[in-house]
Design a protein that fits this description.
With 525 residues, the chain is mainly α. It has 24 helices and no strands.
Length: 525
């Protein structure tokens, strides 16, 4: 059995200073079985979650004649807004509940809630059926996250936390990679199979939960016994949470990352639709396999291709992100362990900005692949550090509560992006909207291009029929005559501002840490 590293002697649980990290292999060897169990549970949960989330944009916005729900990106924005509001808002409060009443119990309850959400999506194949299922899925995720991440914090320490969070992020992305591929395979048969399959997957966590042993449980139960006996007075969770949120290094961190999380989710909320509308993935297939494409069913699955093997579906392109993280995140975890946390966050954010800019500059398929690679590198340097940093500086008895707080910027940022990202795309870039404008410009009567006369998702097909031009030519004309890349530039600017604020925050925290280290220790009572 691996030896736990000696605790750091000069840094307590709540110090703001960075702690020297163990090397990659020493850190891996120091992680116990509970760490790997929660990694497995998170992997399964993400497999099921992204099996739906990654295809939700396509499902909601594709024409009803193609099996979708036939809604605009503007309508999808309201769904995404509410989804994030419930998911992230709920997690703010469920963190404290997990600390007090047990991680295992909340993980169990969340699994049942999420399973019911997937089943609702399958039973009611309509926009409002999907909406209701998404709300159960969102709330179940809010209950699930603090217990899992609170366990991770307790199952690691400040000397192996960079590698622990990096590897955890890597195992998560195994689920995030395979989930959308399975969903793509299922939806080519029937959308209901997507939801039934993921309901089955999430129930697998009940088996892993049987082997899970909550770290710090005896300490928690002893405290509960003292509270019950009246020996310890326990304040309300709301009052306790508000007291913690008054700490400047906490609330400033949360405010800065509210902006960061406004930029970040474009990859999942908007990119699938952008790929579907504007990127000719057939150029990638032809470059790799020739004009005839490929007939390999294995490659069809792994690359997220259409059954004819001639093009790659949007999920396949977006999945480059999870695939790269799955393969390489431990290397970036080792790299980020050599940096200050805020330095890793700063560099990662600049890479994400570069990727968003690339998406805005060109709709060429290979540029999209390059942008996905750059985005993934930035994500690996930044996203795990976001949770690791706040977990490290949290008081030892409030780890899950602070992880719950970490949902505040995600709540603010993702909720606003959930509506504004698709809305900005709808205004500047949605192909169906731009095709309607071109139909009128070419002489079709305005009454003939209303959504009542021409259902959502059908306008571009009508444009091809009306003009006699090929889809490739018309796509090029629409792209060249409109500001299709504008949404990406808007969010890249947000990223630049975020990077600047992270840099300034890092300098400020280092000065606080220096003053903290120089201060004399408190006198014993």
């Amino acid at each position: 059995m691996s030896q736990e590293p000696e605790p750091e002697k000069h840094h307590n649980e709540t110090t703001l200073d960075d702690v020297k990290q163990l090397g990659l292999w020493a850190a891996l060897g120091s992680l116990g079985y509970v760490f790997w169990i929660v990694g497995g549970m998170e992997m399964i949960e993400r497999l099921a979650y992204y099996g739906v989330k990654a295809v939700s944009t396509i499902y909601v916005t594709r024409a009803k004649s193609a099996g979708g729900l036939g809604e605009t990106m503007a309508t999808f924005g309201w769904l995404s807004f509410t989804w994030y509001l419930v998911q992230m808002g709920g997690a703010i409060f469920t963190g404290g509940i997990s600390d007090r009443h047990g991680y295992k119990e909340t993980i169990f309850i969340s699994t049942l809630i999420k399973c019911f959400g997937y089943l609702l999506m399958a039973w009611f194949p309509s926009y409002w059926g999907f909406f209701a299922g998404a709300m159960f899925l969102a709330f179940g995720t809010a209950v699930f996250k603090p217990g899992i991440q609170g366990t991770l914090i307790r199952a690691s320490n400040r000397r192996n936390s960079s590698v622990a969070w990096g590897v955890f992020y890597q195992t998560v992305n195994i689920g995030g990679w395979i989930g959308p591929l399975i969903a793509l395979h299922m939806r080519q048969t029937s959308w209901s199979w997507v939801f039934y399959t993921n309901a089955g997957f999430i129930c697998c966590n009940l088996l892993l939960l049987a082997t899970y042993k909550e770290p710090g449980k005896q300490e928690r139960l002893a405290r509960r016994a003292l509270v019950k006996a009246g020996a310890v007075q326990e304040s309300s969770l709301i009052r306790e949470s508000l007291q913690e949120l008054r700490k400047p290094h906490l609330y400033l961190y949360l405010l800065i990352f509210s902006l960061w999380w406004f930029m970040f989710p474009m990859l999942w909320d908007v990119l699938p639709k952008y790929i579907d509308d504007w990127v000719d993935t057939g150029t990638i297939v032809r470059a790799l396999f020739g004009e005839g494409g490929t007939r390999s069913s294995t490659l069809h699955f792994l690359m997220g291709m259409q059954p004819d093997g001639m093009t790659i579906e949007p999920e396949g392109v977006v999945n480059i992100n999870s695939g790269l993280i799955m393969i390489t995140c431990f290397l970036f975890a080792g790299l980020s362990a050599k940096m200050r946390a805020t330095t890793s966050l700063f560099v990662g954010t600049l890479l994400v900005v570069a990727a968003l800019t690339l998406f805005g500059l060109s709709n060429l398929a290979w540029i999209a692949v390059l942008a996905m690679a750059v985005f993934s590198m930035g994500e690996m340097l930044a996203s795990p550090k976001f949770s690791e940093f706040i977990g490290n500086i949290a008081p030892s008895d409030k780890k899950a509560m602070w992880i719950g707080f970490s949902q505040v910027p995600i709540l603010i940022g993702q909720t606003l992006e959930g509506k504004l990202g698709p809305q900005i795309y709808h205004v500047f870039s949605e192909k169906d909207v731009l095709a309607r404008e071109m139909l009128m410009a070419k002489g079709m009567n305005a009454s003939q291009v209303t959504e009542a006369a021409l259902p959502v998702g059908e306008a571009f097909h009508k444009l091809v029929e009306f003009t006699g031009e090929t889809p490739v030519v018309l796509t090029h004309q629409l792209y060249q005559t409109n500001h299709v890349g504008m949404p990406w530039f808007v969010f890249a600017v947000v990223g630049v501002i975020s990077a600047g604020l992270i840099w300034a925050y890092g300098r400020w925290v280092r000065r606080l840490a220096e003053r903290q280290s120089a201060a004399p220790p408190p006198l014993p009572n």
